[in-house]
Amino acid sequence: MCGIVGYVGENKASEVIVKGLERLEYRGYDSAGIALYNGSLEIKKGKGKVQNLKDKLSADPTAGYMGIGHTRWATHGAPNDVNSHPHVSGSGKIALVHNGIIENYNSLKKELENKGRSFHTDTDTEVIAQLIEEIYESEDDITFEQAVQMALKQVVGTYGLAIINIENPEQIIVARKGSPLLLGVGDGEMFIASDASPIVEHTKKVVYLDDGEMAIVTKDDYEVKTIEDVSLTKKVHELAMSVEEIEKGGYPHFMLKEIFEQPRAISDCLRGRIDVENNSIQLGGIADVLDKLVGAKRLIIAACGTSWHAGLVGEYLFEHLAKLSVEVEYASEFRYREALIDEDDVMLVVSQSGETADTLAALRTAKEHGALTLGVCNVVGSTIARDTDAGVYTHAGPEIGVASTKAFTTQVSVLAMMAIMLGQKRGTIDDQYAGRLIQELDRIPGKVEKILEQKESIKEIARLFTYAPNFLYLGRTYNFPVALEGALKLKEISYSHAEGYPAAEMKHGPIALIDEMMPVVVVAATDHTNEKMISNIEEVKARDGRIISITGEDNNEVIDLSEFYCSIPETEDCLSPLLTSIPLQLLSYYIAVNRGCNVDQPRNLAKSVTVE
């Protein structure tokens, strides 16, 4: 969840690292810091945004040729100056930055205190610096690299680490277990980062580290090995990302840019995969395991947050189109249940980043039980992409805003393609219906554009309800997960209380909350549930609830009952979430802006949740 940037080369390390930290600020923004080496080790850090760090550096322009930087999302210890990274050893010779959680830090800390070491922060990270130094100073005839290896063998938990030692002024040591880390290979310079966004303007060549691996990095070379000291040869990947994709492009916020990128993102997701003329779908990433998927008895979808909502839509899609039994699991809970999963099952994990810690844990549990594992993710080269048996990329492009938007619609697009293809292979849908769905998928990007044209009317609805204390979101079948997602978006970025419910469940409790102060967002965009949704709207209206409907442009019954509405073009019921989610994203965005919230970096949240 935190961000790491490192640099060693001939250029000004401070400039490279600080600019990289700004690109990683979506991963954590409680505090920021940098350790620079230029004959001596200098550390600047403190609570707040990266801009605060820039201000400190401007007063002391030491550039350095090697350094490590960090932007923090606090786990252990308050987000203050003392607890911000980098952390140093007792002698001040060793500095490191850390993403992750050290679970046994208390016991390690007590052992080190008994040996006379003093601690100055509330973090788990300081323990690693002190432990490495204790081993390095107390063991005879070992290198610093070996001291790091010995320390990591004692650590329980997750980490992405970048470490410098002034006794080895030409190198940075990095290590990974459960927290993403990659190397950027330049010409006479090397880069280290949590993801590709800080280094894409410097190099397109990257090496992804896997769990249990470490690297010794100098300006001209790198060596990758396991913490057991087994040397490895790693593939160098070519980044497809561009600098333009990670800039705002004239939009006031990344979130708004990413909302408006959805026609392009969905189109890119579908391109080369749907064949409208031949009514077919080709997903090359799962071609080798398709027979096993077709014959599966059960599909388990595991995900977190917005990806979990996409998985819920997938449940309806797979059960309707492929007649396949589906269970959707919170990945964070799956690992702690008795996993009744075996080789006859398929586990499908969904994650924008491909690095979500809980989702990776669910994936590994499924692999241990012999299940086929599939992944749906956005980031090429991510851990989920590498660790699953097969999978499909969403091709959404970089998503910087913490609140996912285009990730959701492209995930649903992939799940829809998988369900249609599986339905064809299993013979559960006929060619005519499959063709109709494929043709409609092809039209979805244009229909999303049409919805985005209504931004001014949605902005006006947002203005009227900016300070409503509570929101209720209602939907049925395919749009029940959309109601959950709409409520989540509002909570995430505007800090307004909101709840999503299946519309029929309203009268089993939430109806008690409805009065003239309660805006109720009703997603009524499926023909097969329209009459039932009208009944639910009548129930809200009878209790003076303020009705905001998301409905078809010709659904006059719903429109007449609504105080406010946003119309969507007609589509197949099972594909409606690709359209109904768009107005809810805009509604949340404009309410958050009106409330003066930091839309791209909402409090207490980080983009990629790489700790449990």
Low-confidence stretches: none
- Which structural class do the helices and strands define? alpha/beta
Number of strands: 27
Helices, by number, come to 19
- C-alpha Rg (nearest Å): 25 Å
3D shape: globular
The order of strands across the largest sheet is 3-2-4-1-10-9-11-15
Distance between the termini: 10 Å
The description of the largest β-sheet is:
8 strands, antiparallel
Instruction: Give the helix proportion (percent range).
Output: 25-40%
| Proportion of residues in extended strands | 15-25%
Average pLDDT number: 91
Give an overview in words.
- The chain is an alpha/beta fold.
- It has 19 helices and 27 strands.
- It has an eight-stranded antiparallel β-sheet with strand order 3-2-4-1-10-9-11-15, with helices on one face.
- α3 (105-114) packs across α4 and α14 packs parallel to α19.
- The chain is globular, with a radius of gyration of 25 Å.
- The model has no long low-confidence stretch (mean pLDDT 91).
Annotate the secondary structure layout.
Layout: E1 3-8, H1 13-23, E2 31-37, E3 41-47, H2 50-59, E4 66-72, E5 87-88, E6 94-99, H3 105-114, H4 125-138, H5 144-154, E7 159-165, E8 172-177, E9 182-185, E10 190-193, E11 205-208, E12 213-217, E13 222-226, E14 231-232, E15 237-238, H6 254-260, H7 262-270, E16 274-275, E17 280-281, H8 290-294, E18 298-303, H9 305-322, E19 325-330, H10 331-334, E20 345-351, H11 357-368, E21 372-377, H12 383-387, E22 390-393, H13 406-426, H14 431-452, H15 455-464, E23 470-475, H16 480-494, E24 497-502, E25 519-524, H17 530-542, E26 546-552, H18 556-561, E27 564-568, H19 577-594
Parallel strand pairs: 18-19, 18-20, 20-21, 21-22, 23-24, 23-25, 25-26, 26-27
Antiparallel strand pairs: 1-4, 1-10, 2-3, 2-4, 5-6, 6-7, 7-8, 8-12, 9-10, 9-11, 11-15, 12-13, 13-14, 16-17
